[in-house]
Design a protein that fits this description.
This protein is 42% helix and 21% strand. By secondary structure, the protein is an alpha/beta fold. It contains 16 helices and 21 strands. It starts with a helix and ends with a strand. Strand 11, helix 10 and strand 12 (274-280) form a beta-alpha-beta unit. Strands 13-14-15-12-11-17-18 form a 7-stranded mixed β-sheet, sandwiched between helices. The structure holds NADP nicotinamide-adenine-dinucleotide phosphate (NAP).
Length: 464
């Protein structure tokens, strides 16, 4: 089903990507209701902003407990609405609980006033909340993306209004209910069931002070331009085409395992999934052979089944788009080493696919491939590999594999143009580290002490 099938007159449909059946239909939030949700959030903000960190943390810890208690239900909901295998859904919920507790524990320290030496008798920098923050979120990690935005924003004293992706309305409502049950003030976390064409109208409401988008670069361009016109703060977490560089001195057992996991994570539908594998010549053939074998063994199946490594993609239109990128890359000279065929049946399944001889000018190199399609690119030297890694409009994550830790660290720290650079490990998010990109992967940061300071007024206080 495409966008028009997910949205009907006044309704949003959730469609199981495993069967292509409509599994639930939700009434859209009307413009009048949207106004009321935002007003309620703003009213709740007026008292919430004055609460202590201790009070906020108590609700946030309760949210973490509820997430854990409801883990099975939430994992099933994700499997149903967007095809995530149950085991991965459970891990996602556990990670959400971790982030809630992390910000409950550290918000006060991250937002403590910073004294400044000036001519004043007393001067310092204080961090005060902004008000209602709109979160426009994607379907790929339906709970994690929302919690990652909301936990720090709420702990900083803000209110949140969520516009989730149209295909995961059940998850959106479940998250709203969870924050409500955790004891946050009535309306502090609001949920809107609206399509993407209604986002601008929400952003234009005067009580909405800022917007966080996690989504595609196309959505980022649109939201950023409207936020600019309205002079509202925006944080954009967008797409990526993460390069994984494999050098001649890499531990190939490790590189193959990590690269495979990093490409298959969430059926390849992760902004920080590994997408381009840039392998230097001495190890290219061996890496390609072993990596392809590893992907061939992927256990693809019903996301509700246990032991499944990869479910369907989230929507058939996205699967078809991915397949078109594969076909066009082959037409431009890439070779298909594995997969590349749409399986029969109504689901949005796509097999693990390996393209070799990939070069700039092919969709598999220039664009984000949001699914289990690996692009292998050869490079003669380390310098050529790095140049190739950076030759992308994106700059979200990057990884390098080498047995020489100092060499790896130099490349990660100095050479890669990306927001998260890892050595001998899969790029991943962690509440303790800032997360975000450069270039067309967006701007601003989530998580860590940097993330919680995005939606605050950095206020200078000067007392003569
Ligand atoms: P998407 O199509 O951009 O949608 C993301 C959200 O934005 C949805 O709520 C969507 O609403 C809304 N949206 C889409 N176009 C919009 C527009 N022109 N104006 C306002 N809102 C708009 O992305 P997706 O397919 O859901 O998610 C995949 C993308 O997200 C990938 O590019 C991925 O890399 C990126 N992503 C980035 C990060 C990160 O942290 N950097 C993390 C996860 C995903 P509807 O559903 O109603 O269309």
């Amino acid at each position: 089903m495409g966008q028009s099938d997910r949205e009907g007159a006044g309704v949003l449909h959730s469609v199981s990507p495993a069967t292509n059946d409509v599994v639930a239909t939700y009434k859209k939030t009307t413009p009048a209701e949207t106004g009321r949700v935002v007003e309620r959030a703003d009213r709740a903000f007026e008292s919430w902003r004055r609460t202590s960190f201790g009070v906020r943390a108590a609700s946030m810890r309760r949210a973490a407990d509820l997430l854990e208690e409801r883990k099975e239900r939430y994992a099933s909901l994700m499997a149903l609405e967007m095809g995530k295998p149950l085991a991965q859904g459970r891990s996602e919920i556990e990670k959400c609980a971790w982030a809630c507790r992390f910000f409950a524990d550290h918000a006060e320290e991250f937002l403590a006033a910073e004294p400044a030496e000036t001519s004043a008798s007393r001067s310092y920098v204080a961090f005060r909340p902004l008000g209602v923050v709109l979160g426009v979120m994607p379907w790929n990690f339906p709970f994690w993306q929302v919690v990652r935005f909301a936990a720090p924003a709420l702990m900083a004293g803000n209110a949140c209004v969520l516009k989730h992706a149209s295909n995961v309305s059940g998850c959106a409502l479940a998250i709203g209910e969870m924050f409500h049950d955790a004891g946050f003030p009535e309306g502090l976390f609001g949920v809107l069931l609206v399509g993407s064409d209604e986002v601008v109208r929400v952003l234009e409401l005067p009580r909405v002070r800022a917007v966080a988008l996690t989504g595609s670069s196309a959505a980022g361009r649109s939201i950023a331009s409207h936020a600019g016109r309205l002079l509202k703060k925006s944080v954009l977490e967008l797409g990526g085409s993460d390069p994984y560089v494999v050098l001649e001195d890499a531990d190939l057992d490790l590189a193959v395992e990590v690269c495979a996991a990093a490409r298959l994570v969430n059926a390849g539908q992760s902004c920080i999934a590994a997408k381009r594998f840039i392998v230097v010549e001495p190890v290219r053939d061996e890496f390609t052979e072993r990596f392809t074998e590893r992907l061939r063994r992927t256990r693809m199946g019903d996301p509700m089944g246990e032991g499944v490594e990869m479910g369907p993609l989230a929507r058939r239109d996205l699967r078809d788009q991915l397949h078109a990128q594969v076909r066009e890359s082959v037409r431009r000279g890439a070779s298909l080493a594995l997969g590349g065929e749409v399986p029969p049946g109504p689901g949005a399944y796509y097999p693990p696919t390996v393209l070799t001889e990939v070069r700039p000018g092919m969709p598999a190199f220039d664009e984000e491939t949001f699914g289990p399609v690996a692009a292998i690119v050869g490079a003669r030297t380390e310098a050529a590999a790095i140049q190739c890694a950076n030759e992308s409009p994106y700059g979200l994550g990057a990884a390098v594999f080498t047995r020489d830790a100092a060499r790896g660290e130099r490349i990660a720290s100095e050479a890669f143009e990306a927001g998260a650079c890892f050595v001998n490990a899969q790029v991943h998010s962690d509440p303790r580290l800032p997360f975000g990109g450069v270039k067309e992967s967006g701007y601003g940061r989530e998580l860590g002490s940097f993330g919680i300071r995005e939606f605050v007024n950095v206020k200078s206080v000067y007392v003569r």
